[in-house]
Design a protein that fits this description.
By secondary structure, the chain is an alpha/beta fold. The protein has a single domain, classed as P-loop containing nucleotide triphosphate hydrolases (Rossmann fold, 3-Layer(aba) Sandwich), CATH 3.40.50. Helices cover 36% and strands 23% of the residues. It has helices at 18-23, 44-47, 80-87, 119-129, 134-147, 163-176, 193-209, 221-227, 258-276, and strands at residues 6-7, 24-35, 54-65, 69-73, 95-100, 102-107, 181-185, 213-217, 230-234, 241-246. The strands form two sheets. Strands 1-6-7-8-4-9-10 form a seven-stranded mixed beta sheet, with helices on both faces. Strands 3-2-5 form a three-stranded antiparallel beta sheet. It is globular and about 55 Å long. It binds adenosine-5'-triphosphate (ATP). The site of adenosine-5'-triphosphate has 13 residues, from strand 3 and helix 3.
Length: 277
């Protein structure tokens, strides 16, 4: 949410031109992230040897253009969520540099709405946390929900909403933070296929209406090909960039469009090749 993840100044990567920086919302340069594993849980107790650190990401360099939607795909545990945390300033890199122009705000995995609050108050939460007075926050949230086709749900609590609607409210809340960059971690991962397709189409329309820079973590290469301008494929842990695929297809897209099928096949090939290592 809004207060965290603030990185106020543009990244200055060695050798990057000012013009390049102006076009980039997020830059990662040689990023490495290592987790110490506490108490010898992984190896120490079983083998008597010292615990080994977990290298989640290694040598990750990416420059993400303003206003683009970039999908990050990769096998489970390859460091995708860690990458989003780094971009949002929720973790720090152990080596290399991470920077974002302005705020980057995370919508984490899972169902993150407050169960006791209405959709309106959930959507207003980002503004409230940022210090917006209640009446003003609710008014802006109401306007946003209506603009995004969610106006009829304002008074509903999450348990009265479908999973797809809950995730849309959570996206609306993230947009209401005003952050120029939003990081969506598997936003539709728990939805059934039809609901997911509807939510994907809604997100495409929403971003056409309110363009942002988006980092979208997904396990689903079809989702990546449907939504993204670019697909970045990570290797199994430690995550490294093994493919960087421009998508270059107009919206709206359908899963059966030949271009979408071809891009998806390339992403799957890259994932397979990285897995075989
Ligand atoms: N706080 C932590 N302490 C120790 N290890 C961690 C910590 N956070 C993540 N890891 C490990 O780092 C690796 C990368 O984790 P991360 O959650 O970023 O992967 P991911 O690609 O998002 O996984 P998934 O697709 O399953 O959500 C994993 O092996 C994970 O177990």
């Amino acid at each position: 949410m809004p207060a965290k993840g603030v990185m106020p100044s543009p990244t200055r990567t060695p050798g990057a031109s000012v013009a390049t920086e102006e076009h980039h919302a997020v830059v990662l340069d040689g990023v490495r992230r290592v987790f110490a594993v506490a108490g010898g849980r992984r190896l120490g107790r079983a083998t008597g040897t010292a615990p080994e650190p977990v290298v989640a990401l290694d040598g990750v360099s990416l420059s993400i253009a303003r206003g683009s939607v970039v999908a990050i795909v990769g096998p489970s545990g390859c460091g995708k969520s860690t990458l989003l945390d780094l971009v949002c300033g929720l973790q720090r890199a152990d080596a290399g540099h991470v920077g974002a122009v302005g705020q980057a705000v995370l919508m984490p995995q899972g169902d993150t709405l407050l169960p006791w609050a209405t959709a309106l108050d959930n959507a207003a939460l980002a503004l409230r946390v940022a210090g917006t007075p209640k009446a003003q926050a609710r008014e802006r949230a109401r306007t946003e929900l209506e603009a995004l086709g969610l106006g009829r749900f304002t008074d509903s609590r999450p348990d009265a909403l479908s999973g797809g609607m809950r995730q849309r409210i959570a996206v609306a809340r993230t947009l209401l933070s005003g952050a120029p960059t939003i990081c969506l971690d598997e936003p539709f991962g728990a939805l059934d296929a039809i609901t997911r397709a509807e939510a994907q189409a809604w997100l495409t329309g929403t971003l056409a209406r309110e363009p942002r820079t988006v980092l979208l973590v997904t396990h689903d290469t079809e989702e990546a090909a449907l939504l993204a301008d670019r697909i970045v494929v990570l290797s199994p842990r430690p995550g490294r960039v093994v493919a960087d695929l421009p998508v270059g297809l107009p919206h709206p897209r359908r899963a059966t469009d030949p271009g979408v099928v071809a891009v998806r096949a390339r992403a799957l090939d890259a994932l397979g090749a990285a897995g075989r290592g």
